[in-house]
Automatic annotation (TrEMBL):
InterPro entries: Homeodomain-like_sf (IPR009057), HTH_TetR (IPR001647), Tet_transcr_reg_TetR-rel_C_sf (IPR036271)
Protein name stated in the entry: TetR/AcrR family transcriptional regulator
DNA-binding region residue numbers: 43-62
SUPFAM superfamilies (alphabetical): Homeodomain-like (SSF46689), Tetracyclin repressor-like, C-terminal domain (SSF48498)
Coiled coil regions in record: none
Pfam families: TetR_N
Keywords: DNA-binding, Transcription, Transcription regulation
Length: 201
């Protein structure tokens, strides 16, 4: 009896891990495809192929493409929270703000090819009125709120305006890098933002 229960438990755990693994692969693959080719051009069949999941299995996890897109947005929100939390180890708010901007330097080649992963997704979903637009906006709101708090800790006036200016600068650099397919534009733009941050402290 004990061995049977143990075996059943192992099978159940294995099945749950497999289910979680497939779902995670689908969300990760969908995120990459949505970034490279956009929401409207991405199909569930393409996502299934990229994730190495049988096409029929996709509907077990996501009944519609919108449900999968929502899962991608949720995953991006979690990634943003994790990213912002990783800056807590930095010694001061100015250094934390510069660490934020350098994230776009680290992915400058990807940005030059396909644009900012956050900005392009928010832009594409902004025309929706089914709630996905507001969910996607949370990615930007998290960054703006966090940056505002850093500027407030620096003692600068109008911290919200500064946060907006900072992130608008990042997104502007991403747009230029993508438009001209030039990752160096992202790097130089972030360097200017870092000098600006230093001038405020």
């Amino acid at each position: 009896m004990g061995h049977c229960c143990y075996a059943l438990s192992e099978m159940t755990d294995s099945h749950q891990r497999d289910r979680a693994g497939k779902r995670e692969r689908l969300v990760a693959s969908a995120g990459e495809l949505l970034h490279r080719q956009g929401v409207s051009a991405t199909t569930l069949a393409q996502v299934a192929e990229a994730a190495d999941v049988p096409p029929g299995n996709v509907y077990y996890y996501f009944k519609t493409k919108d449900a999968l897109v929502r899962a991608v947005v949720d995953a991006r929100i979690d990634e943003v929270r994790t990213m912002l939390g990783s800056f807590d180890a930095q010694p001061d708010p100015g250094t934390r703000l510069k660490a934020l901007t350098r994230q776009w330097v680290e992915m400058r080649d990807l940005v030059a090819r396909h644009g900012c992963p956050l900005g392009t997704l928010c832009s594409e979903l902004s025309g929706r009125d089914d709630g996905l637009d507001r969910e996607a906006a949370k990615m930007m709101s998290l960054i703006l709120d966090w940056a505002e708090d850093q500027f407030r800790q620096m003692g600068t006036p109008d911290p919200r305006d500064l946060a907006v200016n900072l992130f608008a600068g990042v997104q502007g650099g991403a747009l230029l890098a993508n438009t001209f397919r030039d990752p160096d534009l992202m790097t130089s733009h972030v360097r200017h933002l870092e000098h600006w941050i230093d001038s405020l402290s």
